[in-house]
């Protein structure tokens, strides 16, 4: 478990499923039970396939349980997509987002999932008053691509003057974990099998089949869908094309109805964004505000990120009440701004990825599920090459090179990382690196009990992990792996835990 909890976890009943206990077989093995995995499983079952879903933890225990669940335009602005990919492909992104949102709405209707799905308008506003260029450029680009947009002097009905904005009509929001709970029940009803508490350790080709090695036995399947947020099967290629960013959320109590239902995000990079969560059985709404992203594993005491969000919010929404929730999570940023959805570039025709979905996973993962379903069933899909994971990073070469340089610098931590000299310098409930010779040790002092000492060497590609004080985890600054204080993997690409070791004397 993470140290902080999202509003969704506190307000959903999530079904649990037993671990896999023996070798088994399916047409398709889907690894990961977040929105990407469960949507893919659902669509494939509807297409007549025999599907088995595995999750290392529980349903929605990954980023889908920590999202803010807006369906809104791509994080990479339409004017940027148009410059990088050209008008036709940027229009395809817009169409795919629209169709994904429609699909989610249809699934909710057909399966009668009670998850507060709401169609609503969203507004892009300037981060700094008077700097309206990005808003204007986005309006022109989105309008040209056929997106339903309107230019306004300010957000209507808003409690503060936002300045000129673009209204994007007909976006959506929902309760992500209630949606997953509904999808899981629909999967069962369609004959799908789900095993939680079962970690996939690797995928091997065996004749015409794939074998997924897991902690509960091997799964043989014709096709494997890796829907683990970041792929665990591909150790290098995909991890040079995307980067993990930590992102922060605060939920404030507000008087019911005091703030209108809308989505709001600004032109900053990273941006602040806002939505409301309402519950029939409560006389308060929760105003959810997110932002303050930074590269995962590259900041230890990041509690101030929540303070920044609080200050931003109280300066604008002066009537918000006390804080009810604070949490953080990780997003995977693709180097060219478009998710990687489709065939695994490396080893096989029958292994598929859904990753790189940035802060747009609700829509991108649904697009990914549609693409993967079509690849497996042989149906045509016009988005396949746009989203292909094997595309070269030409469209985002500058960002790609910046990220590679940043990763290379992180290996310098083996020589220069900030470390304490002795466990006495670690407060209860905190962790720190300790150096002994050329080795770094990740040492956590629990509130009670013995020190927990781990090797600081990330089991993915060997960078030194860093302490994440608010979430009480060890985070890798290279490709975003995260580990519990016990060493277990919280987030890939790592598959193996950090090694438990003994701290040598000084
Ligand atoms: C704070 C925050 C706010 C966000 N806001 C938005 C938003 O407003 N709109 C939006 O569209 N997107 C948003 N996102 C992004 C979105 O939440 C994610 O892109 C999306 O949830 C990813 O879904 P997923 O199914 O790919 O991954 P996950 O939900 O992380 O699911 C992956 C699953 O795979 C399992 N797993 C991992 N490794 C293994 C393994 N080896 N074996 C078996 N199982 C494994 C995990 O346990 C997990 O359950 C936000 C993200 C964060 C963190
Ligand atoms: S995540 Fe790649 S080295 Fe740690």
Automatic annotation (TrEMBL):
Coiled-coil residues: none
Keywords from the UniProt entry: 2Fe-2S, Disulfide bond, Iron, Iron-sulfur, Metal-binding, Oxidoreductase
Tree of life domain: Bacteria
GO terms, molecular function: 2 iron, 2 sulfur cluster binding; metal ion binding; oxidoreductase activity
Gene Ontology CC entries for this record: cytoplasm; membrane
Chain ranges of the Rieske domain: 418-506
Pfam families documented for this protein: DAO, Rieske
Database matches in InterPro entries: FAD-dep_OxRdtase, FAD/NAD-bd_sf, Rieske_2Fe-2S, Rieske_2Fe-2S_sf, Rieske_Fe-S_prot_C, YhfW_C
PANTHER family recorded: FAD DEPENDENT OXIDOREDUCTASE DOMAIN-CONTAINING PROTEIN (PTHR13847:SF281), SARCOSINE DEHYDROGENASE-RELATED (PTHR13847)
Record protein name field: FAD-dependent oxidoreductase
Organism whose genome encodes this protein: Zemynaea arenosa
Classification lineage: Bacteria, Pseudomonadati, Pseudomonadota, Betaproteobacteria, Burkholderiales
